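Q&A log
Question type: sequence-to-structure
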Amino acid sequence: MTDHLGYRKKLGTLGPSTNTIVQPDFDDLRPVGVTNHYSRIVIPNNPVNDDAGFLRLVESINAATLDAVDVLRTCEMDYMVMGMSAATFWNGRDGASKYLDKLAERAQVGVSCGSFATEAALNVYKAKRIAFMSPYFEVANAQVRRFFQDCGFTVVRDLCLQRPSPVQIAHTTDEMCRQAIRQLDGDDVDAIVQVGTNLSMIRMAAAAELFLGKPVIAINTATYWHALRAVGITDKKAGFGTLLEHH
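Response status: OK
Response body:
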């Protein structure tokens, strides 16, 4: 017997309690027969004004993540999808791998996360020189940059939007994202990546690909794509960029 709605797969998804974007994004990307079961990592919506404030945010997320994983285990999920990204880039590729192993051990299922999902997506496109944007502060961008460099990519440019609180990340406007994409793009860049799962980019990235003629990878799209492919679901979906539509 299989789950009545999740008869193909039940995916457990994790995101900070302040995140209002990743849950609806993942639901928009969901194929028929796959269900998403969301657990919130409980954190405060404290102001973030500088690098120190952002580090406190990451510490809050890390402290509560395993408890949220334990909640998900009770639904007997088949696989887990991380709807938060900053911590998954921390301490280079080796550090990120250890973090992912810890999550998988606690979840007792396989796990997809933003860092390794975007690496996999970039490798699909054979991209070498990249630019990325985030809602973070420089202390976090430095960790993202280190991860991508450890993976063998050249980071040509990156941009921090420095959003003033966890909830305010979701208030980032399309115009802010358009300006960021324009600043990052250039003939010296093979692909553009957006990190930060509370930043709404799954549709904007798809539209940008049409005009730039190169991959623009939104982290929520990449992470959910990675999870689907990891569990053997190869459905293609239009409207959210070439990654889900062709790969």
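Response note: The chain is about 45% helix and 15% strand.
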